[in-house]
TrEMBL record:
Gene that this polypeptide is encoded by: tmk
Highest taxon of source: Bacteria
Similarity-based family: Belongs to the thymidylate kinase family.
EC number(s) given by UniProt: 2.7.4.9
Alphabetical list of Pfam families matching this protein: Thymidylate_kin
Protein name: Thymidylate kinase
Record's function text: Phosphorylation of dTMP to form dTDP in both de novo and salvage pathways of dTTP synthesis.
């Protein structure tokens, strides 16, 4: 069975860049790796509904914290079987965002901390009820929120297909989400976490997380 590794962080943190560099490092060592990004836009009806809601469609859906969280959770529920298949056929499955993203943003929208009801609800919903695979390692790409916002804005200017949604444009939400992420990482929520900065050495990180003991600190469900 392969290792399930997740990269988390606020919008504009540089998760996509880090993911590409990690994949390159593993492939140079002949490690079989597959990468999946959440939400799975253009693949999942739930992810597409969430994206449309964030663009102002579907009435007041985007205004409901729990409705949005459910759409993102259902996207992962539908992907769970495929993730397990990938784990059976590869050394590493790398996910760009996962359950912790839902926990962090949901808690932040409700102005709760990581030990509040929202995070517990997400954990019970996704890991316990939906049975999505538990990560072996979670990586928090921790960058200043202001820098992440600048990157997200620059990305929007450079690529008209990547228009920022209402979450990405809300600086206060991004700040609160960053704080919850830090709390989740410090608590090793559901599995071991690594907190890294933007200047992390991807080759060293790739080696470190791949050699992480598979059950160290991991919560079984």
């Amino acid at each position: 069975m392969g290792t399930l590794i997740v990269i988390e962080g606020v919008d504009g943190a540089g998760k996509n860049t880090l993911a590409r560099r990690l994949v390159s490092a593993w492939e140079r060592d002949d490690i079989e790796v597959v990468r999946v990004g959440f939400p799975r836009y253009d693949q999942s009806v739930h992810a597409d509904l969430a994206a449309e809601a964030l663009r102002g469609e579907h009435g007041d859906t985007a205004g409901s914290v729990h409705a949005m969280a459910l759409l993102f959770a259902l996207d992962r529920r539908d992907a769970a079987r495929d993730i397990r298949k990938m784990l059976s056929r590869n050394d590493i499955v790398l996910l760009d965002r996962y359950v912790a993203s839902n926990a962090a943003y949901t808690a932040a929208r409700l102005e709760q901390s990581a030990d509040g009801e929202a995070v517990e609800w997400i954990k019970a919903l996704e890991f316990d009820r939906f049975g999505v695979p538990v990560p072996d390692v979670q990586i928090l790409l921790d960058v200043p929120v202001e820098l992440a916002a600048e990157r997200a804005a620059s990305r929007e200017v450079a690529d008209t297909s990547r228009i920022r949604d209402v979450y990405e444009r809300d600086g206060s939400l991004q700040s609160r989400t960053s704080a919850v992420y830090g709390q989740l990482a410090s608590a090793n929520w559901v599995s071991p976490w690594r907190i890294v900065q933007a200047d992390v050495d991807p080759d060293r990180l790739a080696a470190d997380v791949f050699n992480q003991p598979p059950d160290a600190g991991k919560v079984t469900t």
